[in-house]
Amino acid sequence: MMSNPLPRVARRLAQRRWVMRTAPAVLRLERLIRRVSGGRKGVLDLAGLPSIEVTVPGRKTGIPRTTSLLYVPHGSDFIVLGSNWGSSRHPAWSANLRAAHTASVRHKGEQFLVAVREIDGAERKPIWDLAVEFWPGYAMEYELSGGRLFRIFELRRKSH
Fold this sequence. Notes:
Blueprint: H1 6-13, H2 17-20, H3 23-36, H4 43-46, E1 51-57, E2 64-70, E3 72-74, E4 77-81, H5 92-98, E5 102-107, E6 110-118, H6 124-134, H7 137-144, E7 152-157
Antiparallel strand pairs: 1-2, 1-5, 3-4, 4-7, 5-6, 6-7
């Protein structure tokens, strides 16, 4: 049985600086694939990488905003990082998530609520190391950002 080579290829590509410049095209492709698949698939899914769609109210408007994100598995929880493709600015979704206590997650066709917790203090370094081991591109994105500390969140499924 042959394993899917796409996640390994994606991890290698994510460590290339030129890939960060493709962000606008990848985001447009993500929206198209989500629309065509009825929200079931996105670019990360096609590449064989773990992805979730996070919906959280905008911190200023209250309007629900949905973003597809790569996640780092952490037991049954999801770790997401606001790398913003190595930009010097935090992504808007991370400010919205920071302002929320809960969010809605869609994962593998299932929708559920999660508790949102920002990772900081002494737990930040081990979670950062776990994230970089899982997705080495984060280290390069950190350099590209000028050393901006990415916001890191744990999303923990709420019990029914």
